Every structure is written in structure tokens, then in C-alpha cells.
Amino acid sequence: MSIAKGDTDLAAHKVKVIKLSGNLNSTNSQEFRQNITQFIENGAKIVLVDFQDVTFMDSSGLGALVLAFKTLKAADIKLVLCSINEQVRILFELTNMDKVFEIFPSQDAFNREQRDLVRSDKKSAIVKNYI
To answer: Domain span at residue 33?
Structure first.
């Protein structure tokens, strides 16, 4: 598994991206957890894990994701996922983790929703200031 880190075009909103590739399993789940810890230290508000290039995930990978979710939630950071493949989707459904994690079809879909939220927040602020 390889991990690429970066920001989305919504970097001003402290969105950090982890782009995984290959397998997420017992061999590399520790590396994934270490990367999550760095995002807490870097002041992220949202961590997006992009699964587009992940070919396989086992129970250890799922455990690493659940631990990351709990760790980030304790630090008031939101963890979201995108671009999961069929094998990962089935694993999530069998374990009911699809109800725990917010999952977007793609990174673009996540970015669109975030932009819409920012726009609606700005409109709400304008209305409040007007009233």
C-alpha cells in the first residue's frame, strides 16, 4: 500500500486528503494509523480517505479505519471516505460500517458538497446580518 497526502481545493477549510493505493491490511495498517495522527497535529478539520486505487481491504484494514474514526472524532475531526470499490463496499455493508462512515462516490462529489455547504453558510451569515 502506498499513501499520498495532500489538500483538496477546499484547503482553507482544513480538509486533508489521504489517497491510498494497493491493499489495506495487517501489513500496512500501522502506517495508515501513523498518518492519521499527523493530521491531528496539522490542525485538520476533515480528513478524506480516497480509496480509488485500493484493490483490497481486510479486517485489519477495517479495524485501522475504525480506530482512525474514533481517534479523529475524539479530536473533533471528521473522517470521510470516497471512491470505494465493490469489495470494500461489500465489507462495509456486511459489517454495517456503511452506516458509520460517510462515504462519497468520488473526491469530486465530496468537493461539490463542501462547496455547497460553504455557500449556504455564507448565505445564512448574510441573512442573519441583514435581519
So the answer is: 2-130
Give me the residues paired with residue 6 across strands. 17
**What whole-number distance in Å separates Cα of residue 67 and Cα of residue 2?**
19
CATH of the domain at 109: 3.30.750.24
pLDDT in tens, 24-46: 999 998 888 888 888 888 888 99
Task: Return the C-alpha cell found at 75.
Answer: 479530536
pTM of the model: 0.81
Q: Is the pLDDT of residue 92 over 50?
A: yes
Give me Rg for the CA atoms of the chain: 16
CA 31 to CA 104: how far, in whole Å?
24
Residue whose C-alpha cell is 490542525? 43
Burial grade of 58 (CB within 10 A; 0-12, 13-18, 19 or more): middle
Element (H, E) at 57: strand 46-57
The helix or strand, by DSSP H or E, that contains position 80, with its residue range, turns out to be strand 78-82
Total tally of structural domains belonging to the chain? 1
